[in-house]
Each structure stands twice: as structure tokens, then as C-alpha cells.
Amino acid sequence: MFSTDDTIVAVATAAGHSGVGLVRVSGPAAAAVGCGLARRTAPWPARRAVRTLVAASDLTADALVTFFPGPASYTGDDVLEVSAHGSPVILAAIVRRAIELGARPARPGEFTLRAFLRGKVDLVQAEAVRDLVAAVSPAQVRAATAQLDGSLSAALVEQAEALRRLETLLEASMDFPDEGYRFIEPAEVHAALARVGEQMARLVATGGRGQLVRDGARVVIAGVPNVGKSSVFNALVGADRAIVTPIAGTTRDIVSERMVIDGALVVLADTAGLRDGVDRVEAEGVRRASGAVESADVVVLVLDGSREILDEERALLRSLDGRPAIVARNKADLPCAWAAGDGVVGALPVSAVAGDGVAALGRAIARAVAGLSGGDGEAVVVTNERHRVLLARALARVRHAAAELGASGHQLPEEFVVADIRAGLAALEEVTGRRTADTLLDEIFAGFCIGK
Q1: Which burial class, exposed, middle or buried, applies to 380 when counting CB atoms under 10 A from its CB (0-12, 13-18, 19+)?
Q2: Residue 87 CA from chain centroid, whole number
Q3: Using N-to-C axis directions, what is the helix angle for 138-148 and 123-134, rounded to 10°?
Q4: Which of 63, 79, 334, 392 shows a CA-CA span of 20 to 30 A to 275?
Q5: Rounded-to-integer distance, Cα 44 and Cα 268, Å
């Protein structure tokens, strides 16, 4: 853990050229550093932008300077923000001059770390800041914004308070063992543990949807050889990522691309044609393709609409029954050879060569992914794996206490129940940062960008 009592400075906007760039200064000397930059003697007005010239090395830049006195600031300390033209040369010169005036370079995430240590945000909200900056899909933005607003924290605090109340009442009962007086009856304890367990279980259950939001849904393009799977893959990606030839079995391995399709984050995979391999290499590709289809969140089954449907393809269609799957009728630029009784319902016409129907296929994929992740209806979704693991640990201890208390006919000594409750509380408090090690904080905030 590094010092939080000095003054730090960093560029708070993305690297590169931009219309406007921002330099952030935080700490007890923030106002003085700003006065040195602007060669100003008057105090800065609170939360009002002041247009001024900022002198940095041999450069003079036109800037807007805004001062946020602590504790009503992002970090809880005095904060000064300098908005100037977004040239990296100008911004670097301002940072160098601020260092000459007594600030030191900020480390990754140090501004948000100070906000956490000053009680401006908890650890869940601090991690949401990082997730919001790194978001590449609307779903990620929505999830991070909800966590930054405190929705997940509020749910965790509610559960922790319920457990803490049980702990207090049980400890009070433990203080009077000879009198046999109880501040709460075992049946009430059992019911309360069950209620908290149900709430925790609902949160833990969102972890699967949260994983889709965080990492992207696995969307696998499958089919027999020579139906145009790789062409469809390339059309969706918008680049020639997969090799396309008229030779059956060209694709031998899985080619994947992490991308956003119509607002949905997906890991799109092109696979080998599903057939009995003619050599050991192709057979291994088919084995991997089959495994990818089995583990896929969504399968895009590509069929060749210019010829009759094969028996193997009918078998593939049956195997996907009940699973999130989309059927794409490729080569729609050619006459359709399917008979009316072929039984393929809802196949999307696509011409990977001409580009027709590709956008509609992308929208269908996005709808399928939204269905998996619960769409926008879920108020609180656990997207962070650290949170999910700790919540699962807390849930296990709460369930264990409830099960043991029930199995004993409500005769289990309070000490055993309290031990489980304390362990569950410790896990919950580790999520929010109320109880955490400095090494964990270093690890979490090291993943932030400098200036945030």
C-alpha cells in the first residue's frame, strides 16, 4: 500500500490526440499546484471552471481549471482538474510542471483507491469504475453503472445486517448459559438464515448471466463441410479471418474473434465441418468442433440453401432442439433447392458472398444472447468473478448453519451457528472491502488505468 497523504497527478483522459485532455491533481497541495501552474495568487472558487493560461515548461496553454475542495470531491481530498487541448505534448508538460510544484506521479487506480479509503465508494463500486472504463458493450455499461450506483452493495449490506443481527442476538444468548435465557428462538434463527440464504442464492445465480456480460457469449458457427461457415464467419467479423476455399475440410481448427454484434459481446467461433474426418488432422478438428458445439451458449447452424438438406444436417437440427440455436440458409443469392416439406422453420436467408442477410443474422445472434443474459430486466447482476466466489462461500456457510440447526431439531448450540454466521459475514465484507488485505487492494487497483 502506498501513501495517501501526498499530492498526486496524472492525465485522466485516454492516451493519444483528442480535442480536450484532462490532468487531475489530488491531495493537500492540489490548490497550490494549480496556482503555480496558472501563476495565480487568488484562491480557486469551488466547483467553478476558471479560464486561464497554464504555463508548463516553455509552453503556455489555454485551459479551464476547476477546483473541488474535499471532502466533496471524487477522491475525498482536494482535487484540481485542468482541461486543456488534447495534445499529448501539452498534457505531458502540465504533468511535469505539476511534479516540479510538489506533486508526484499517480499510480494506476490511485485516485479511485483514495476514494475507497476515504469512504466515498466501497470496493464493489470502485471495481465498477474500472469495469465501466473497460466496457465494450452496452450490457457491460449497464451492469457497471448499476454497481457504481450501489445496487449490488445495497443488497450485500442488507444481507450482512441480517446476519449481524443474528450474531448479536445469539452472542447475547451465549452470555447467559446458566439461566437458559434466549434473546432469539432457534426457530427464528432457522427462518432468518433461510431468508438470507434465498437472497444470496438469487445473487449467486446471476453469476452465469454476469459471465456472459463480462466475457461474452460463446457463439459457435457449425455445419457440415462446404456450406460456407467460414464465409459467414468472415462476413460477421467484417474481415478475412478464416481461410475460405472450395476444398472440403479447409478449416481444421477453431478460429475465434471477440467482438460486439448489434450491441452484444460475443466470442464468435468458426469450426471444422462436422463429418467423419478423412485424416487424423481433420478428425481432430472435427472433435474440437463437436466439443465447441456442446459447450456453446448459442449455435449458428449454417446450411447450404442451394442443395437439398442432407441426413447429417437433419441429425444436427434434431440435436439442437431445445437449445439456443439459429439456422442460417446460406447461398441465398442462388435458387433455393429446399422442398416445402423439408421441415426447416425460421431459417434466415444469408448470402455471405453478397452480404445480404448478414445484418439480420447479427441481430438474431444479439437477441439470442440477450435471452441468455436475462435482457435488461435483472436489477442486480454479479459480473465480477471475485464477488461470485465470495458470495458462494458466504452462501455455503449460511446454508450449512441452517441445515445443521434443522437437523438437530433446533438444539444445535449457539456457538456452532455463530461460527458459520461469522464466516459468512467475513466473506460478504470482503466483497465490499469492509474487511480486506492490503495485498488484495494492490492487486485490484493495479488493474486500473493511470488517472482513474
Answers
A1: middle
A2: 31
A3: 160
A4: 334
A5: 52
Residue 353 to residue 358: CA distance in whole angstroms: 10
Q: Are 65 and 50 in contact (CB under 8 A)?
A: yes
Quote the pTM value: 0.79
> Exposed/middle/buried for 156, CB within 10 Å: 0-12, 13-18, 19+?
buried
* H-state helical runs in 62-150: 88-100, 110-117, 123-134, 138-148
DSSP 180: T
Q: ∠149-151-157 over CA atoms, to 5°?
A: 120
- Cα–Cα dist 333/295, whole Å: 32
Q: What is the pLDDT of residues 276-286, one digit of tens each?
A: 656 666 667 77
Domains along the chain with CATH numbers = 8-121 (3.30.1360.120), 129-206+381-433 (1.20.120.430), 218-372 (3.40.50.300)
| CA atoms in the 13 A half-sphere facing the CB of 359 | 2
State in Å, rounded, how far the first CA of the chain is from the last one.
Answer: 17
406: CB partners within 8 A, 6+ apart? 190
8 or 374: which leads in pLDDT:
8
User: What is the per-residue pLDDT across 189-243, written as a single tens digit (0 to 9) for each?
Assistant: 999 999 999 999 999 988 888 888 888 899 999 888 888 888 899 888 887 765 5
Report how far residue 81's alpha carbon sits from residue 33's, in angstroms, rounded to the nearest whole number: 11
124-143: pLDDT as tens digits = 999 999 989 888 888 888 88
Nearest to 372 by CA among 232, 191, 219: 219
Q: Is 174 helix (H, G, I), strand (E, B) or coil?
A: helix
